[in-house]
Amino acid sequence: RKEVEQDPGPFNVPEGATVAFNCTYSNSASQSFFWYRQDCRKEPKLLMSVYSSGNEDGRFTAQLNRASQYISLLIRDSKLSDSATYLCVVNERTNAGKSTFGDGTTLTVKP
Amino acid sequence: GAGVSQSPSNKVTEKGKDVELRCDPISGHTALYWYRQSLGQGLEFLIYFQGNSAPDKSGLPSDRFSAERTGGSVSTLTIQRTQQEDSAVYLCASSLGLAGGSTYEQYFGPGTRLTVT
Prior knowledge:
The structure holds 2 protein chains of 2 kinds. Chain A has strands spanning 4-6, 11-14, 19-25, 30-38, 45-50, 55-57, 60-65, 70-75, 84-92, 99-101, 105-110. By secondary structure, chain A is mainly β. In chain A, strands 2, 4, 5, 9, 10 and 11 form a 6-stranded mixed sheet that branches. A 5-stranded antiparallel sheet of chain A has the order 1-3-8-7-6, with no helix packed on it. In chain A, a hairpin with a 6-residue loop joins β9 (84-92) and β10. Chain B is globular and about 40 Å long. Chain B has no helices and 11 strands.
């Protein structure tokens, strides 16, 4: 079993739709959580950190459920420009420099 | 300001040759990371540096892989006796501090696409 698992998709949604991605992690000692976005053949870029209480940035909402060991990303009012691969990232408490990336969920937003 | 730069951007090499990949982090960033991404896959952690030291080398796939960082800045990833399965994009990232102990963002370079023929 992978340490960080994501549904690879692809998710194909129309503009304006709401879409949610989940990511599960196996290491209960995980401490920091992030969502990164990667456009085709480009480097990943931070979308948002995930805080224990949940956090929102515009149309994006991230949630953490430590008991069930998953994080989620909700995108409201999808735009064409949201089309990308979304990577879930988990960092350990005791090995702060090691980031484990999920394989990513691919989103395509269509007109 | 300048971001993370990597060189070369593309490298084609013959099986059995050694290659060196270079990463220039953002100035002032103490942490530096190397990842490998095969086509259609996620990022595979290789190694990270805090300053010039590498506390965790567990991600290096074999003893053919090594990395060093000098002066708390530039890092090189060396692959000896390359094999076809080493073909991938090698990504470098840097951050102000270690990503795990806080919410420090990792800034990625554009990567080096390595093809072993």
